[in-house]
Design goal:
homodimer, alpha/beta, Rossmann fold, six-stranded parallel beta sheet, six-stranded mixed beta sheet, 13 helices, 12 strands, DNA-binding, Cro/C1-type_HTH (chains A, B), transcription regulation (chains A, B), transcription (chains A, B), Peripla_BP/Lac1_sug-bd_dom (chains A, B), DNA-binding transcription factor activity (chains A, B)
DNA sequence: CTAAAAACATGAAACGTTTCATGTTTGAGT
DNA sequence: ACTCAAACATGAAACGTTTCATGTTTTTAG
């Protein structure tokens, strides 16, 4: 059906090499250029990227692996990453592993087979061995949002320790003493750091840490919902909750709504990630906002530089500051 | 770096054909199987899907084109589609065209060059010619959420006319007479149908249609925000608003919040798409929920059947019912 | 034990490109 | 008009698979 380079050659009477050169932006005689252009139109020719990839062993394709396509942080990240990649002639194959490390491994293999030139990943943390194997094959890997302790590869993250500390400290400044945190899975560096920020502030102000106020969930709304209920059912419930990702934030709000607990009068809340959410929730929600554009920029830049070879040698760790956006969801419990 | 089929052949002393047969699940002598398996381990062999694709002219890859990666409806749709595809040995290359028909065309070409076996698309409506060209190349196309009037291809949609009518009729039943609708772009079939449902109900109840109450936006939050403000600024503002997609719904809520307009006491609202949203918003939001699983199932099924050849001939139009989930965001304006 | 059938192995050709060493044309300078 | 670079064209080989017609081995049945 589709014309190939050979058809163009036959049609124009020129050689394969000439057509190939033209296709790739090389110089050809004016007369030939016209002929080729006409033939391309006529035969509806499109480069077969598969064949090209086989020859060049560059697929001009980056694998992108994320925990879930329904995760707001991930989709807004990869949307931006894709935009940059395509600007540089690359495309992304996006895979979600549905938070399942086994599936994450499969996707890794899949992408290798697809001959991707590099992999950008938001890793589960349970596939370090497999990621190392990818690196061993000479395929660059950039992790985003999370770092992998045993892996020497480029990473782009936010200073989770610091921003978490800021959020908790803001609670403390508003006289809160029973501050709960709902964390993500323990093996994710990001979750760990956010917890550490929480603990550090407690240490700094010499507040006692009540283990009941520290809950670990997965990064799903359901989890936020359940853990929030658990917190509310405590003999001495918290006066403030720090929800450490977007879906958990949603879950917390839905639990509070269900029990008709008013924010911030009855309970203060700081959420995470989606600035739009703060406009939609009433009262306006205070939350931690991550610099999505910066994260995406840095990630793509790192990957492209590794691919072009302009960046070599030791892995880079790029760290950005998140921002605490204060709105109306926190007040002092003493003002009741 | 990576071992090829040839290396395996050399390493085992067997022929290329045998290795190939084994890789593809064919039968080989037991002794040979062992040898091959050992060699594969040893040489860390992975099939080069690029080379395979070149030979078979099947990439086992489906192109998926959506308006935006930040569109909730789209991401939840493709997340499910991907899941099904990978279950059947296919993978998806996901492209978003950022609501830009020009970019949509580029993505179409890109996917053709990538030799995708089929394309699943949520089309802008402005690329019918290009989509026809894809079909002319013998590549199956399935449109989801929207149909293309001039194109004969499979489509999976929701009965937008009907559900929109139900929503508006619900307003009418609650004594609303000034009902606003915020539609999507006019050239999108889905938007058109939702408007038609609105008009039909007005006709049915012999209500006058005030053109001021019909607003057209794009499917972004900002648009919902602005158009909602415009509605509120009308000399005689609506008593109810029907927001016809998720982002518009968010925009409407944020505009209402900004002006401290209470739902439903001061204004009734029916939103769209995200059931979780209704739990997070207070009061619980009534909304139209689309059967995402069914949409995704049908889409994938149609595509796979076209690819396997089990479905041939005239295009199928699969239509599902959406559901109106009533919560607390609508009351009669007379009960004020 | 033998012949025929069944099961498996072989290797060259092909898929649509790019590459590169070699060949041909062009036109500037004299 | 001739020479010589410079500019461009040529076509065979290669990328890593699959395919298929043919060849070889194993199994089965008589």
């Amino acid at each position: 059906m589709a014309g190939t380079i050979k058809d163009i050659a036959k049609h124009t009477g020129l050689s394969l090499g000439t057509i190939s050169k033209f296709i790739n932006g090389g110089r050809v005689r004016e007369a030939n250029r016209d002929k080729i252009e006409r033939a391309i139109k006529e035969l509806d020719f499109h480069v077969n990227e598969i064949a090209r990839g086989l020859k060049t062993s560059k697929s001009k394709t980056i694998g992108i692996i994320i925990p879930s396509m329904e995760n707001f942080f991930c989709t807004s990240l990869i949307s931006r990453v894709e935009k940059h990649l395509s600007k540089h002639g690359y495309s992304g194959i996006i895979c979600d592993y549905q938070e399942d490390p086994q599936m994450e491994k499969e996707k890794l293999v899949f992408l290798i087979n697809k001959m991707v030139d590099g992999i950008i990943i938001v890793p589960s943390g349970d596939t370090q061995k497999e990621i190392q194997q990818v690196l061993d094959r000479g395929i660059p890997v950039v992790t985003v949002d999370r770092i992998l302790p045993d892996i020497a590869c480029d990473s782009v993250v936010v200073d989770n320790f610091k921003i978490s500390g800021e959020a908790v400290e803001y609670f403390v400044g508003q006289d809160h003493r029973r501050i709960a945190i709902i964390c993500g899975p323990r093996n994710i560096s990001t979750a760990e750091e956010r917890l550490n920020g929480y603990l550090a502030v407690h240490e700094k102000f010499r507040l006692t840490v009540d283990p009941d106020l520290i809950q670990f969930g997965d990064y799903y709304m359901q989890s936020g919902y359940e853990l929030c209920r658990r917190l509310l059912d405590l003999p001495e419930p918290p006066t403030a909750i720090f929800a450490t990702n977007y879906d958990i934030t949603l879950g917390v709000i839905s639990a509070l709504n269900e029990r008709n607990i008013r924010i911030p009068e009855q309970l203060s809340l700081i959420g995470f990630d989606n600035l739009n959410l703060s406009k939609v929730i009433k009262p306006a929600l205070s939350l931690v906002v991550q610099p999505m554009d910066q994260l995406a920029d840095a990630t793509t830049k790192l990957m492209l530089e590794r691919l072009e070879g302009t960046l070599q040698g030791i892995p880079q760790l790029v760290k950005f500051e998140a921002e605490l956006v204060i709105k109306d969801s926190v007040i002092s419990p003493l003002h009741k």
